[in-house]
Amino acid sequence: MTVTDIAAAARVTRGSFYAHFAGKDDAFCAAQTKALQESIGIAASEFFSADEWPERVWRAGAGLLSYGAENPDLTHLWVVESTAVGGAAIRRQQDARTAYAIFLEEGARRSAGTVRAPRLAFDAIGWAIFALLRREVLAGRAERLLSVLPAAAYVILAPFVGPATALEFVEERSRAVSRGAPAAP
Amino acid sequence: MREAEGQALTHRERLLRSMTEVAARHGYAGASVTRVVGAAGVSRATFYEHFANREECFLAAYELALARFAPTIAELRAEVLDAPRPDLLEPLLAALAEDPATARLLLIEALAAAPPLRERHESLIAQLEGAIADLLDASGGGALQVPAAALLGGLAGVASMRVFAGQAHTLLSSAATRG
């Protein structure tokens, strides 16, 4: 893929491209940033629409996965192509994990006394979710990303509320969805 | 004849080592034939005697890295099924810490590569996930287990962050050093 390809797909001239971006990698990082800003906005708005932390996680996850499913190209760019671009794009992936860790910190606070989660645990959870997404995208199932929600929610909740409670919550929530309650906004 | 074969082997090995180091420094995207032959101290002509293009060379470097780690992984699997211990990942992490360039090739740059290497790497990941799923099944556990893909992704991801930050030597400690 070249700058000429990108400009042609956007129906602008190479001159216009360079008026906005220093080069291909710069444009790639800008697309990454746009997706991160939009997705974190959706996740935050869903997160704070509920009171209890597990439900907040479920809703934020549903919002994020729906956004990913509706924008399969951006999802592919994030979970598959970022590593290929290297350097700045990989650092941006790390920024995203740091940003999303905010939603986990509340879990850590709410379960204070039972679990003291180190930063390493947040990173591991972030990477675990990333691996689940990557697997779906590589299998060509980006449009059905929402199917990852129960597993992803379990991975987030289990370390803080315990495996049994997390399992119970996820199963109950999945049953509610199959009865027709909306999983996503 | 024998000497010529020995020489050819040395060139090939040097090229594979250079590919590993250049990819660790410049990323897969920056691992050009020019950089690889420069680092190996061989001519472009020699490079093309061994490999059709840089992708083929990268794939060979990847296979070599896998072969190096295969015994450690096999041992790990045997031990896991025998008697799981908390320090069971130590030999694998130590091997990765000893060779940061190879660690980066396996943990980061392999994800960056184009098909067919991408497919080759995905099949390795699927194999490891299968092994983890077997282990989880064997350990009994509850109805919904942490998906094997998530467990492997979490482990490999945390390790790859250290390697990417040039801190492969801290793989055996619980926290990365600052700076």
Structural descriptors:
heterodimer, A: 185 residues, mainly alpha, 9 helices, B: 179 residues
Largest sheet of chain A: none
| Rg result of chain A | 18 Å
Shape of chain A: elongated
Strand content of chain A: under 5%
Rounded Rg of chain B: 18 Å
Total count of strands of chain B: 0
Give the distance, in angstroms, between the N- and C-terminal Cα atoms of chain A: 35 Å
Q: Kindly report how far apart the N and C termini of chain B lie.
A: 52 Å
User: Which secondary-structure class do the elements of chain B indicate?
Assistant: mainly alpha
Mean model confidence by pLDDT of chain A: 86
Low-pLDDT windows of residues of chain A: none
Q: Which pair of chains has the greatest number of interface residues, and how are they split between the two chains?
A: A-B, 33 and 30 residues
Oligomer: heterodimer
Can you count the helices of chain A? 9
List the helices and strands and how they pair.
The complex is a heterodimer of chains A (185) and B (179).
Chain A: H1 3-9, H2 14-20, H3 24-47, H4 53-70, H5 72-85, H6 87-110, H7 119-138, H8 149-161, H9 163-178
Helix pairs in contact in A: 3-4, 3-5, 3-6, 4-8, 5-6, 5-7, 6-7, 6-8, 7-8, 8-9
Chain B: H1 2-26, H2 33-40, H3 44-50, H4 54-82, H5 90-98, H6 100-112, H7 117-138, H8 148-164
Helix pairs in contact in B: 1-2, 1-4, 1-6, 4-7, 6-8, 7-8
Question: Your description of this structure?
Answer:
The complex is a heterodimer of chains A (185) and B (179). Chain A has helices at residues 3-9, 14-20, 24-47, 53-70, 72-85, 87-110, 119-138, 149-161, 163-178. By secondary structure, chain A is mostly helical. Chain A is elongated and about 55 Å long. Chain B starts with a helix and ends in a 15-residue tail after the last helix. Chain B has 179 residues and is mainly α. The mean pLDDT of chain B is 82. Chain B is 73% helix and 0% strand. The chains are: A mainly alpha (185), B mainly alpha (179). The interface between A and B is medium-sized, with 33 and 30 residues.
